Amino acid sequence: MKRSNYSDECPRITRRDSNLKAATGKFVLMKSFNSTILPSVLILLSSAAWPCPTQAAEAARSGPEAAREQLKSLKVAAGLEVSLFASEPMVRNPANMDIDHKGRVWVTEGANYRVFQKWGNLRPEGDRIVILEDSNGDGVADKETTFYQGNDINAALGLCVLGNKVIVSRSPDVFVFTDTDGDGKADKKEVLFTGIKGVDHDHGVHAFVFGPDGKLYFNMGNDGREIHRPDGQLVTDVEGHTVATTGKPYRQGLVFRCNMDGSEFEVLGHNFRNNYEVSVDSFGTLWQSDNDDDGNKGVRINYVMEHGNYGYVDEMTGAGWQAKRTGWEDQIPLRHWHLNDPGVVPNVLQTGAGSPTGIMIYEGSLLPEIFRNQMIHCDAGPRVVRSYPVQPVGAGYQAQTVNILSTDDNNSWFRPSDVCASPDGSIYVADWNDAGVGGHNMADRELATMTGRVYRVVPIGKKPVMPKLKFDSASDCVASLASPNQEARYLAWTKLHAMGQKAESSLLKTWKSENPRHRARALHLLARIPGKEQKYVEIGLKDANPDIRITALRIARDRKLDVIPFVKALAYDPSSQVRRECALALRKNASPEVPALWVTLAKQHSPSDRWSLEALGIGAQGQEESCFDAWLKAVGAQWNSPVGRDIVWRSRATKAPALLVKLIREKSATQDDKNRYLRALDFIKGPEKEAALLDLVTAATQAK
User: Fold this and answer.
1) Confidence (pLDDT) at 440
2) Contact 76, 58 (CB under 8 A)
3) Which fold is adopted by the domain 74-310+345-459?
């Protein structure tokens, strides 16, 4: 969790409104250290006007009765209702959450959040991973089991339940706990990764999720910095790069993918600030939020285009967004992400000020239509759980904001930290429950009165009836593969993958269904049946649904098939998003056919489509010179067109600087145009750039 500033006079009072009126009129203006609500706060010096809560008042605010009373302040979307599933003393400061295939809610607690602060270690025996269970089906937890407790998991920010294994993320370590005898308690602890920075910090390593390709996805914020194997060696990714944020080539926050054992480690995106969690849908598309430098109203939602740079700092120099640069945006929320720089992937949505936390893709059918197959996201700063219904736009996406769960102004303690889907399609929301967020602080500093809540959100009148999922036969597993619950899909995927060809007929029934996400899950497994990879990839590429065609191409890359014939088949696809994936599939491919294919895709670029342009830039990596040369040869004098100017602006090829200078010198070029092309020169190195700049300066001198 992120937490906001506190007054030393009254550490439990945290949020100050900028138009606060004081009886004494005595104020001091103070720069917020880490505020996610306002760029500055007014701290009232009069303790009479803002008295600290008494011990009795704190006790009255804590406990099941207080939790039920606070529940009344929550506002839920039309057609839904919210109920209290669990509260203190069963759970305190829930930092992260997962739900297993039985509907049990697993929580990492954060009583020992920021143990280096002055309140010290509030729970000397360490924080817990607790399992909350509704044993009688009334929708309320009545049983708690401590799965594990220790100071090595204090305020763990990640929890992923996968069968009898539980992945726990807490810098500097990622642990895999195993329950060998099924009693709900950890029997073995192993280290999957270690050496991650950001210890006792929100910007370290975050939660793992299981993908439809059978791989693990996770991320870490910009204080994570590096990641090591259990033996202490720095991780080297599949491209031979050391995974450290030194700018060679990675910077700031990172998104990862790897096998279940940590092998085949990939960096999928970089240059985020604090990308709190990553989620992956059934097509293999990645979504996440990212927090701005607090107070700049630039919190964002991202589609993670593989190998994209997301612009938190300058790609070349590592300078922050405040450093003056040519052509930067007038609005700080846009300037914040270097969106004027070539090589930066755009944002799906910016949501203003906030402290984004847990996120998921809801692929169930219980909630109203508007929330189905969409992101559901917690933002603890403005105290809201939102959905972001997404629509395709060009080769990318745009989204709107729809609230699911929020609170009135009488409840400043609602701080949603995570959201997960149960096997019955209901969603559960973990509430850290604190007076503020950010600033490495918290208001709850007494374990006896420390609060924490878990809520259940369902359609009005929906009773908790947990499906009895089975994993004995292929047909059982295929049925469970359709679950909205992640662990259920993991168990089904694992069994079906082990069955191989024996599961083929059952998977084909799902492949012929009408639900494209279920079909995509089936395709992932069909294309992993030994000897049938090519067959099912080719079937997927011919599908009428563009998301299925994208899925098939991604599978081909993962299975290390020759993608060139597939890109040829899709190069004129009517979907610009499919063509985006074609461009990405060409990245670092040594085939001599790449330049011609890249030119085919580049000619279809729309000058208004930044997503397409960045995909082309990523796709040219490894053959940038040959791709640009082939494009210049193909377009001839038409290089100076709206599409061509985009291609030149984004290119890092050695012939680009001379063309950029020509564009700068055009009489029709506006000052904004000139700034744009001048900025592009900052991203190209070599004698060609120096010669072009000399030409520009010489021409300017002669003009005088």
Assistant:
1) 78
2) no
3) Neuraminidase (2.120.10)
